């Protein structure tokens, strides 16, 4: 309990230089956090898929597959898991990109709530919420 008498919000933060080789480790840490906080099997599947796509997109599109600084924040509020994945890469561009372009659609379909936006300081932030007791 904090000094104010309110329970602390469960929180996971992962920050640093990330390459495609780190996606699996980040996915495992987020999955373990979800398990520790009561996520159902269906919710875990949705969470893991969306986080993997968000992190992979940041590496591939934000940093041209070279890797770069990334922040993943996960917390639990009102029986929902909230995830933010933010990079400092090039942000959105109108230039053609490699790949099938399925990642954003998969994230949108997996999450109960989903937003993606360019950050004023550069890069992209993906925000998602997932109910812990079922898939979105």
Instruction: Determine the number of helices (DSSP H or I, runs of at least 4 residues).
Output: 3
Task: Report the principal-axis shape.
Answer: globular
Structural class determined from secondary elements: alpha+beta
pLDDT averaged over residues: 86
CATH top level label: Alpha Beta
**In the CATH hierarchy, what is the superfamily?**
Histidine kinase-like ATPase, C-terminal domain
* Span of the ends, CA to CA: 31 Å
CATH architecture: 2-Layer Sandwich
Q: List the strand order in the largest sheet.
A: 1-2-3-5-4
Count of separate structural domains: 1
Notes on the protein architecture:
The chain is of the alpha+beta class. It has one domain (11-131): Histidine kinase-like ATPase, C-terminal domain (Heat Shock Protein 90). It is 32% helix and 29% strand. The chain has three helices and five strands; from the N terminus they run E-H-H-E-E-H-E-E. The chain has helices spanning 23-36, 41-62, 103-110, and strands at 11-18, 68-77, 80-87, 113-118, 124-131. A five-stranded antiparallel β-sheet has the order 1-2-3-5-4, with helices on one face. Strand 2 (68-77) and strand 3 (80-87) form a beta hairpin.
Give structural attributes.
136 residues; alpha+beta; Heat Shock Protein 90; five-stranded antiparallel beta sheet; 3 helices; disordered N terminus
Please provide a brief summary of the model:
The chain is an alpha+beta fold and 136 residues long. It has helices spanning 23-36, 41-62, 103-110; strands spanning 11-18, 68-77, 80-87, 113-118, 124-131. Strands 1-2-3-5-4 form a 5-stranded antiparallel β-sheet, covered by helices on one side.
